[in-house]
């Protein structure tokens, strides 16, 4: 019998499993390697559009909707997780709306207690660069930083019971000196500069340090007042009378000049269409952050674990911060 024959010698079986093994190896390669890699190609784009319909460009004159929901924070949505409005992500959506000629106006839907000063200001700055009509629709809450980002709008709607305003700045420090003493923990700090460890949680703040930080707070507060005065066409002194951190019901905010009209989301969309010259019922496009194939298939955007939350807590304890944030809930 020739050595090339496919018939096995007596007492042995032909190795027919090898072709099957090769087939399964190819299938595994496609599933584990090629499909995830396709997130940068046409396959990935198809799934991304299915999971994110708002990513598709409108084909006719439309009103774009950008939502600011939750605490305003710096960074981008994929790295943060949770219910927050990430400044980098929101700014990307603003740029997307600006670049799309079919999006004629933008409705900013705000439901937020505010958040970081820098994050709020970055979003505000991006909105001032938007060369299209901007209308704000306030939800249940548009306070502090939530109002700050609303100020440059051409028109602002709030419901009768929306809580808005809270024009102020807050900074919180946790002092754990007594707790550390009880536990028997000593903290040794070596600095160059008298106030380099300002705000440390292991010691009390000195009167001089309080005065220094209050000065920074006051300067930031004045900036907030100027933003509102410019955006609303109000005298800064009139805004200053309202800028003591109070929130106002939407109906009251209209009378104070902080809001233009009591109305709802549909009213804001119609107003945006009117300001941009769109006739009839406008097409509405939700602008949302893109979702990658890996996130869609495998849910890699997991919530932070206990260790991550503890790390963030220690970070907040150690670093002083300024916030346009309402703490009423």
Please outline what is shown here.
With 329 residues, the chain is an alpha/beta fold. The protein has 13 helices and 12 strands.
Record keyword descriptors for this entry.
single chain, 329 residues, alpha/beta, 2-enoyl-CoA Hydratase, Chain A, domain 1, eight-stranded mixed β-sheet, two-stranded parallel sheet, 13 helices, 12 strands, 43% helix, disordered N terminus
CATH homology superfamily name of the domain at 60-170 and 235-304 and 321-325: 2-enoyl-CoA Hydratase, Chain A, domain 1
Low-confidence stretches: 1-14, 33-55, 296-304, 306-310
Question: How many runs of DSSP E, i.e. beta strands?
Answer: 12
| Sheet with most strands | 8 strands, mixed
Structural class: alpha/beta
Shape: elongated
The percentage helix is 40-55%
Order of helices and strands: HHEEHEHEEHEHEEHHHEHEHEHHE
Distance between the termini: 88 Å
Strand content: 15-25%
* Number of helices, counting only DSSP H or I runs of 4 residues or more: 13
pLDDT averaged residue by residue = 79
Q: How would you explain this protein's 3D organization?
A:
The model is unreliable at 1-14, 33-55, 296-304 and 306-310 (pLDDT under 50). The radius of gyration is 28 Å and the shape is elongated. Helix 4 runs parallel beside helix 5 (117-128). The strands form 3 sheets. Strands 1, 4, 6, 7, 8, 9, 10 and 11 form an 8-stranded mixed β-sheet that branches. Strands 2-3 form a two-stranded parallel sheet. Strands 5-12 form a two-stranded antiparallel sheet. The chain has helices spanning 17-37, 42-51, 77-80, 87-99, 117-128, 145-148, 177-183, 207-232, 236-242, 250-256, 265-276, 293-298, 306-318; strands at 62-69, 71-73, 84-86, 103-112, 114-116, 134-143, 155-158, 163-165, 247-249, 261-262, 283-286, 323-325. It is built from 13 helices and 12 strands. By secondary structure, the protein is of the alpha/beta class.
